[in-house]
Write a structure and sequence with these properties.
The structure holds two protein chains of two kinds. Chain A is an alpha+beta fold. Helices cover about 65% and strands about 10% of the residues of chain A. Chain A has a four-stranded antiparallel sheet. The longest helix of chain A is centred in the middle third of the chain and has 42 residues. Chain A starts with a helix and ends in a 7-residue tail after the last helix. The two termini of chain B are about 50 Å apart. In chain B, a hairpin with a 4-residue loop joins strand 3 and strand 4. In chain B, the strands form ten sheets. A five-stranded mixed sheet of chain B has the order 24-23-25-19-26. Helix content of chain B is about 30%, strand content about 20%. In chain B, helix 3 runs parallel beside helix 6 and helix 18 packs antiparallel against helix 19. Classes of the chains: A alpha+beta, B alpha+beta. At the A-B interface, helix 2, helix 3, helix 5, helix 8 and helix 10 of A face helix 1, helix 4, helix 7, strand 13 and strand 16 of B.
């Protein structure tokens, strides 16, 4: 036991080292440095910038920018107790320590004009010695990083702890209750609510909570303590903190409540049918004793594991909720530091997050072992397939080639970059189609089987039809849309949805702006704007190729001018099926065009992660041995970086090298890079269990080649799992895009995506206070899509894995 | 199962009980009594002209960003300056009513015959917030901190011991400001060249206490003093001469200030200002939260953006506050074309030569402005609470604004005519073709963050599409924008907002924008010699204005600068939104100035409803 813990703790060191190198490297890819802000200020002179550059070690004594690995070495030296760099004073030695680079043009920043290399009084030498580890200084705040983080740590810790406790207190009893009263009204209601809670974006919930607090005045709208708490004695002050924690706790807790409750319920049901329950009942034990002493004790195991993971999140902070609810936690500090490029703070935060994550996993394993003695900590699985390809070598080669390709990317040349991207796009598209084709061909029987079963499932069919409708809308967006995506009408901003009416044919009401200072529109009695079906409107290309002008519905201005007996200006009589936004653009059309981005990000992202996940995870499980070891260490390494930090680091590194129109690609890359590791781990487990089945062994002993076994036997059997996993993880991508856009890091104008549209309405308090509710429809669309995917995924899982079936 | 239900009930009861307890505690006690101390008001104290009020009350404000430091030598931002301004004072102040420089720590000043020597007479008998006397030594010490130099071991050159932004501000024609102590209450400054804005500029330097900071100054650790950690752990160390002292600082939440018992202003009844017991600055993450807090009665005062006035005014009755319309704001928001000629180290021109030819043509720039539907934006986006900006010194700065500048209003036919004159043609697809046969496509580089800017930019895109110009909007990170407009110059068009802190009192604060050698001459910065005749003329006018001490003459000179800028249009002006200030009705002595913060006389505000 102790040796196990020690071993795990020791393996953390190389991971921490690797993660810090990775993050440092990613941050170095972002253009500029911490002094960006200072450079932008009119009152800070160039000389001062140059001096600060030297002070922060951004340039060396020659005035040349310091390479990232040199900066990293200094940082590492600071942070480790075993120092390897020492600065020693030297007498006016003529030898400069760093080799002078050949004939570099004198940089205008540094003040040295002489030809002789500057003599230094300080030089750095390599020498091992012990010293006090320090996390360094925050450049932005000019204080030690440990102090800065210390300022925020308690607040973050308290909030996370409350959220976890809250989730446990609510989720476990509710889950148990739902299981005991299976199929009752309460069960149905609670599972419905759980779906809803799982599908609502956290930041959307936070906004609604703030709005609720502001309107009712029952809760504070934000912050950690009230204004007068400084003057309170201890106990009321604590109570005041608690009062401020209520809303953030609920918002943060609700998502995990839903998840935990569902797990709890499913497990409880599983064990309720276990034989020992029957035995206990036969022995005449009281129902209460059976439920709480036997079933609950067993059913709670998976939740204990999740407790470990929850511990990991304790100190990472919740950026989105902190931002909306104005809670002074670590999340916001780290977010800002990333974009200010305040290196020391970012690295300290990443290290802390990493350590917590790994400690959390360790605690989870220990808890599991403690609660379930059947689980052994050191499990050794020894089957190793001897493939013909030398799988481990191939994996290494693949990673190597990937790194070389990445290093060849022309980061700073926009034109080459664009050319490269268009190539990647085409190759990617072709690859995707081929990939889908192969999988489709192999797994066709499985899918057909599943589809047949799905047809008999009412709820599943409903979800599938909703999704079908949404994707139909995305596909035919320009045909269905009434306006172009960017058509503005500055005379009709914040127009409410034009109500449909019947006036010798379908028509919409005409509105009048009675208060231009607050955009208050009222319908004009007795007037209406007739609509025309399949009418001509703006030109577009359906599917990007077929030129068309016909739209499903268009306003009929000819009929209107006939009716009014005068020429009409179309701008005065708009058609807004779902209202208009701050520059008078049509929300309905933008939702349609936005769905093209929001809905495809999930599909493309999942296609990429599933492919990588299958190749790495599936093969690792199948081959075992070195390949497995290497692949799983890689996966664990990626999973050891807290997802949000990795996301921010990747965003900071990648985004500046792309046009904002290419942001779509950046988001897919980021989300896929982060997402594949988890998928790989799950698929490894599945293939591990499949590989020892009789038919695989039979195929192998009949001498089928490894490739054939993989394609003919392993893949089809994983296909159904892939399908379920894919369906259940698509919402993650949709929410990921929304969250990125909410933080201002995602899709940009003039493109439209649901996340972007939601962010724009959320930033505008007018939307709430002047009740421009139609601007929140993107949130509703996200919600509907996510819930549909979740329901469909669950239904598919029930079909694929009858053991998990609810009834 | 009954057992379970029972437990549930107990749990629920427990929750409800603690909930009530919390609610009771939360609205229980107010702030404690504040100890003001009975210090006699010194003879030289300034006597307020407003009606005397009574002590008490808590004034609550909010800020969107936290101070980064309390040390004025460390590079800092607006939030840090405003925090420092609460507990520190400068030699002179600014009166927004009369728009003139007022006495601060200096009760009066003389300017010599040759207009180069300034003698400041300090108030006698006033004390720092810890009770130590304030003398000329403190002023000299402050300027020593700014200017002291050491030899750089690497280069052997003299470099500032504490590099800071004031050095450049007080260096005139390569020579530094000279200063010396005449006696304990008199200091003398000599500007090497004529420089009329000096009288007001000297007020930007907050005087710091020698008795607290001299040791750190001497041993080189001055920049580490007075950090945020100081304010958290030992706020009493932050000794100043301002109206307040730092009472406590909770990072991420708030700063609480208490009155400085030794402040140098008092009222007619001999009561020391300020009247409020506590000033609380609460930190919120975005300006929306700020507006929401004010509209729900949780803040005493706030600046309300033009786009939010429509709903904030609905809270005037229930929450007992008043919104004051302040007219056009002095801030400036503009776009520009990159006019930097030349090429980078690899021989690639900053801007493609044929595009540069368009941008350099004044008629092209004017055509863009004629196409730009800024009135539509004012009406649709701002609900009528804004107007197109006409001059670099906006309508919100009436003293310096030139109302007679050339104005551009949407007129597509004028725009087309100008383009035709400049040799542009339209092809069959409706695309605009440049004189050299290239279709007109422009990339506008923006940094993400401002909703208003996005709305304005997308409108411009639509407006230009009407002329057949394709505008591509490219959002990049802030760091990239700065790098491109500062160093690599490889962009076509960008936009920026110009703050008003320095320019509000005197347009010379924006000198770096006007003069061709300035680093904020964004369209073509740091020129060695002026690229065009009109830029040369602006340089002349700015120099002339610095050497003129006649205010009317200076206004006239700046009016000509504005005329040139409006005709030549190096900057494409965007919007001037109206400003709104809200303050609770319980505060007395509120005087709304024509421009600037409504809280300029915070030390004179008082209330009868002291909690």
């Amino acid at each position: 036991m102790i040796s196990f813990i020690l071993k795990r703790l020791l393996t953390m060191l190389p991971v921490l080292f690797g993660v810090s190198v990775l993050v440092f490297y990613l941050m170095s890819l972002a253009p500029g440095d911490f002094l960006n802000e200072a450079r932008a200020r009119p009152d800070i002179s160039d000389e001062m910038i140059a001096q600060l550059e030297r002070q922060y070690g951004l340039v060396d004594s020659q005035g040349e920018p310091t390479a990232w690995y040199v900066q990293y070495a200094y940082w590492l030296n600071n942070v480790s107790p075993l120092k390897f760099i020492e600065t020693v004073p030297v007498e006016q030695s003529p030898e400069p320590e760093t080799a002078p680079s050949e004939e570099t043009p004198p940089s205008d920043a540094s003040a040295q004009a002489e030809d002789t290399p500057p003599t230094q009084r300080i030089k750095t030498v390599f020498s091992l010695h012990w010293g006090k580890p320090t996390l360094g200084q925050s450049w932005a705040y000019n204080i030690a990083v440990s102090d800065l983080i210390g300022q925020r740590l308690l607040a973050t810790f308290l909030l996370s702890l409350c959220a976890i406790t809250f989730a446990w207190i609510i989720a476990v009893p509710l889950g148990v209750l739902a299981a005991i009263k299976q199929n009752s009204f309460f069960d149905r209601l609670s599972s419905l609510l759980a779906y809803a809670a799982l599908s609502i974006p956290e930041f959307f919930l936070a906004i609604l909570a703030v709005y609720f607090a502001a309107k009712t005045g029952w809760f504070p709208t934000g912050g950690r303590s009230s204004l007068s708490s400084d003057f309170m004695p201890l106990i009321p002050r604590m109570a005041d903190y608690a009062y401020h924690l209520i809303l953030p706790t609920i918002v943060l807790g609700i998502g995990s409540i839903a998840g935990m409750m569902r797990v709890m319920r499913a497990n409880f049901l599983d064990y309720l049918r276990a034989e020992f329950v029957t035995t206990a009942r036969a022995k005449g034990l009281r129902e209460n004793v059976i439920m709480f002493r036997h079933v609950l004790r067993n059913a709670i195991n998976p939740l204990l594991t999740s407790l470990g993971f929850a511990l990991a999140g304790l100190l990472s902070g919740a950026i989105l909720v902190e931002k909306v609810m104005n809670y002074p936690g670590l999340g916001l500090l780290i977010f800002e530091s990333f974009f200010r490029q305040d290196q020391a703070v970012v690295l300290a935060a990443v290290l802390m997050g990493c350590t917590m994550l790994m400690l959390g996993n360790l605690v989870a394993d220990l808890l599991l072992a403690w609660s379930d003695p059947r689980i052994r900590l050191d499990s050794a699985d020894t089957t190793v397939r001897k493939g013909k390809w030398g799988p481990a070598g191939i994996l290494l080669a693949a990673v190597f080639i990937f790194l070389i390709l990445v290093s060849l990317i022309p980061w700073d040349n926009t034109e080459q970059m664009n050319a490269l991207l268009s190539w990647v796009k085409w190759i990617g598209l072709i690859g995707l189609i081929i990939g889908v084709g192969i999988i489709g061909k192999i797994a066709w029987p499985t899918f057909r089987n599943i589809a047949a079963k799905l047809r008999r499932n009412l709820i599943g069919m409903c979800a599938a039809s909703v999704l079908g409708l949404l994707y139909f809308g995305a596909l035919f967006a320009p045909f269905l849309a009434t306006h172009k995506v960017s058509d503005q009408n500055l005379t009709q901003t914040f127009h409410p949805p034009t109500a449909l009416t019947w006036d010798k044919g379908l028509a919409v009401k005409i509105y009048e702006n009675i208060d231009p200072t607050a955009a208050q529109y009222v319908p004009v009695e007795g007037e209406s704007l007739p609509l025309k079906w399949f009418a001509k409107g703006f030109e577009y290309e359906l599917f990007g190729v077929i030129p068309m002008e016909t739209h499903l519905v268009q306003p009929d201005y000819a009929a209107l001018s006939e009716k009014l007996g005068q020429e009409v200006d179309p701008l005065d009589y708009p058609l807004y099926l779902l209202g208009s936004d701050s520059t008078g653009r049509d929300i309905f059309s933008r939702l349609l065009f936005g769905s093209q981005i929001s809905l495809t990000i999930g599909l493309i992202g999942i296609a990429i992660t599933m492919t990588i996940g299958f190749i790495v995870g599936g093969l690792a499980g199948y081959f075992g041995g070195k390949f497995d070891f290497l692949a799983m260490r890689l996966v664990e390494f990626l999973m050891a970086v807290p997802g949000l930090y990795l996301l921010l680091a990747l965003r900071a590194a990648l985004a500046p090298h792309f046009d904002s129109a290419q942001m779509f690609i950046v988001i897919i890359i980021i989300l896929s890079l982060i997402g594949w590791a988890g998928t790989a781990r799950i698929l490894r487990g599945m293939s591990l269990s499949i590989r020892n089945r009789q038919y695989i062994l039979a195929a192998e002993s009949m001498g089928q080649s490894t490739g054939k076994v993989l394609v003919k036997h392993l893949l089809p059997n994983l296909a159904s799992y892939l399908l379920v996993a894919a369906t259940l993880s698509i919402p993650g991508y949709i929410l990921g895009e929304a969250a990125l856009s909410f933080l201002g890091l995602g899709i940009q104008e003039p493109s439209a995506s649901w996340g972007l549209m939601l962010q724009q309405s959320q930033r505008d308090m007018k939307v709430f206070y002047l009740d421009f509710w139609w601007l929140l429809t993107p949130g509703m669309m996200i919600f509907i899509t996510v819930i549909a995917f979740n329901v469909l995924g669950d239904t598919l899982r029930d079909i694929v894995d009858p053991k998990m079936k609810r009834n | 199962m009954t057992g379970l239900n029972h437990r549930f009930h107990r749990l629920l009861n427990g929750l409800l009980l603690s909930g009530t307890a919390i609610a009771l505690f939360a609205c229980g006690k107010g702030p404690p009594e504040i100890e003001r101390g009975q210090y006699p008001v010194p003879e030289d104290a300034e006597i307020s002209t407003t009606e005397p009020g009574q002590y008490g009350g808590v004034f609550i404000l909010s800020e969107t960003t936290e101070p980064k430091t309390f040390n004025f030598l460390v590079p800092h931002d607006q939030a840090s300056s405003s925090a420092m301004g609460r507990f520190l004072s400068g030699l002179v102040g600014w009166d927004p009513l009369e728009t003139e420089v007022t006495p601060g720590l200096a009760k009066s000043w003389d300017i010599s015959e040759d207009k180069k020597t300034y003698t400041y007479h300090l108030r006698r008998g006033i004390k720092w917030s810890d009770g130590e006397p304030f003398t000329a030594d403190d002023v000299i010490f402050t300027f020593d901190c700014i200017f002291t130099e050491d030899e750089d071991p690497a280069t052997g050159k003299m470099t500032p011991r504490y590099p800071n932004r004031y050095i450049a501000q007080f260096t005139f024609g390569g020579k530094r400001l000279e200063y010396r102590k005449i006696d304990d209450y008199t200091v003398e400054f000599v500007t090497p060249e004529l420089y009329s804005p000096f009288v007001s500029n000297v007020g930007f330097v907050e005087i710091i206490p020698k008795h607290k900071l001299y040791d750190a100054f001497a041993d080189g650790t001055l920049l580490e003093m007075w950090s945020t950690q100081t304010a958290i752990e030992t706020p009493e160390e932050l000794v100043g001469l301002g109206p307040f002292r730092v009472f406590s600082y909770s990072p991420g939440e708030r700063i609480v200030y208490a009155p400085n018992p030794h402040y140098w202003r008092a009222d007619r009844d001999g009561q020391r200002l300020p009247y409020v017991d506590f000033l609380v600055t609460k930190f919120v993450n975005d300006s929306n939260a700020d507006t929401v807090l004010f509209s729900s009665g949780q803040l005493d005062a706030a600046a309300i953006p033009a786009t939010d006035e429509a709903w904030v005014k609905m809270g005037q009755e229930p929450h007992d506050y008043t919104l004051y319309e302040r007219g056009p704001t002095p801030s400036a928001l503009f776009m520009w074309f990159n006019l930097k000629p030349g090429e980078n180290a690899e021989g690639i021109p900053y801007v493609k030569p044929y595009k540069m030819a368009w941008f350099q043509d004044k008629r092209f720039r004017q055509a863009i402005m004629y196409a730009f539907d800024r009135e539509g934006i004012a009406k649709g986006v701002y609900f009528g609470r804004a107007e197109p900006m006409d001059s670099i010194i906006s309508q919100g700065n009436p003293k310096w604004h030139n109302a007679a500048v050339k104005k551009y209003r949407r007129n597509v036919s004028t725009a087309r005519q100008l383009l035709t004159e400049a040799g542009f043609t339209t092809n069959a697809q409706g695309k605009l073709i440049g004189p050299q046969g290239h279709p007109v496509e422009i990339e506008l580089m923006l940094f993400e963050g401002s909703q208003r800017l996005t709305e304005i930019a997308t409108t411009l895109k639509e407006n230009l599409a009407e002329l057949g110009i394709q505008l591509r909007i490219n959002y990049v990170d802030f760091g990239v924008v700065i790098q491109k407009i500062d160093n690599t110059f490889d962009y076509e068009m960008s936009a920026i907002g110009w703050g008003s802190s320095a320019g509000a009192t005197d347009p010379s604060g924006s000198k770096a924008l006007y003069v061709s050698s300035g680093i904020y001459h964004v369209w073509n910065p740091k020129q060695e010699t002026p690229a065009t005749a009109w830029e040369a003329r602006i340089d002349e006018l700015i120099t002339a204005s610095e050497q003129t001490f006649d205010e009317d003459e200076r206004v006239r000179l700046y009016a000509e600068v504005q005329d040139i800028m409006a005709e030549e249009l190096p900057l494409l002006y965007m919007m001037t939104p109206y400003g709104y200030s809200g303050i609770k009705n319980k505060w007395q002595n509120v005087i709304v100035p024509p421009s600037g913060s409504i809280l300029w006389n915070l030390d004179e505000l008082w209330t009868e409803e002291a909690e």
